[in-house]
Design brief:
Helix content is 14%, strand content 30%. It is α+β, with helices and mostly antiparallel strands. Strands 3, 4, 5, 6, 7 and 8 form a six-stranded antiparallel sheet that branches. A hairpin with a 7-residue loop joins strand 1 and strand 2. The radius of gyration is 22 Å and the shape is elongated. Residues 1-17 and 19-37 have low confidence and may be disordered.
Length: 317
């Protein structure tokens, strides 16, 4: 069986990876790649179908929590994956960020284990790569596809059955409606891939936090404690130099709980997925005044252009 060393993990671990949205969250941005070649690589890594995954029947529409019917008590030796219905959306390539949702069932009892991803803010998109478990399970399916996935029986647990809906391929740049620029704030221009550049205006930096929406998205709003998938480009107002950029680093970023500097967090909260936000952060809401912090950016006002690609709300207590 191909990729058995990666995919033939215990049922419990596999379920945790998928339901928590933790598998395959790192990877390329999907920019500037040969889609035919990389799609083939992802295709060749895909888990094979088998009798257990083939025999699953599903009740329920795509994009909604489903009911799965299958023969109970089967001993499944290896992970299996079957395409139940092909989508008509974009074909997935190596490194694409993919939003997905799933329903999980116990192989012995048929009982529902749980659902995830069918409500906005439940799961983050995953970057699918050939060496990541979720990439091997979804493979190079098209957006809109519904998959039957079966994890093997172990000594500790029955096989587990998943119905996974491949919802969409998520852009790696903000896609919201462009807004009028705010006078007096830095000017932002984008290249054809959405990579920003920033022009600092003449004069002193604002002494208060300044937030402007450059593109207005229509997705879920970021709330306190969220973990968001972001692109960002940071420039010092004082030097007009770029000090950090996810675009230059090669991939969007996600930090649990959005634990960034205070001004960055304030700029995120309440903004909708798909938005691009410009924020000017005074030192007190960034890395502190000069002499108050040893950080190299202490005393500097910071400018960020932030693209909000997705957000995951904190789990209910």
């Amino acid at each position: 069986m191909r990729n058995r060393s990666l995919i033939a993990v215990s049922t419990t671990i596999a379920a945790t990876l998928l339901l928590a949205g933790c598998a395959g969250t790192e990877g390329a941005t999907g920019q500037d790649k040969d889609s035919e070649t990389t799609a083939t690589d992802l295709c060749s890594a895909t888990v094979e179908s088998g009798a257990a995954s083939d025999d699953v029947t599903v009740e329920g529409d795509f994009g909604t929590a489903s009911e799965a019917k299958f023969e109970l008590g089967q001993k499944v030796e290896e992970a299996q994956r079957t395409v139940l219905s092909d989508g008509d959306g974009a074909k997935i390539s190596e490194g694409d960020y993919v939003s997905y949702a799933l329903s999980a069932f116990d192989g012995d009892s048929g009982d529902r284990i749980g659902d995830a991803g069918y409500t906005d803010g439940e799961l983050l998109p995953a970057a699918l790569t050939a060496d990541a478990p979720l990439g091997q399970l979804i493979g190079c399916a098209s957006a809109g596809s519904r998959l039957s996935i079966v994890f093997p029986t172990t000594e500790e647990a029955a096989a587990q059955y998943y119905i996974l809906d491949v919802l969409d391929v998520v852009p790696t740049a903000a896609w919201g409606e462009e807004q009028e620029p705010t006078e007096g704030l830095p000017a932002v221009t984008l290249d054809e891939d959405g990579v920003p550049s920033v022009e600092i205006p003449e004069g002193e930096a604002p002494t208060e936090l300044q937030i402007a929406v450059l593109k207005e998205g229509d997705g879920a709003a970021v709330t306190a404690g969220d973990t968001s998938l972001l692109q960002y480009h940071g420039v010092s107002w004082n030097t007009a130099e770029t000090f950090d950029s996810s675009w230059e680093n090669g991939a969007p970023i996600q930090i649990p709980g959005n634990t960034y500097v205070e001004g960055f967090v304030e700029a995120l909260e309440g903004q909708k997925v798909g938005s691009q936000v410009l924020v000017v952060i005074p030192p007190a809401l960034a890395y502190g005044e000069e002499g108050e912090s040893e950080h190299e950016l202490a005393g500097q006002s910071l400018v960020f252009v932030i693209d909000i690609l997705a957000t995951m709300h904190p789990a209910a207590a």
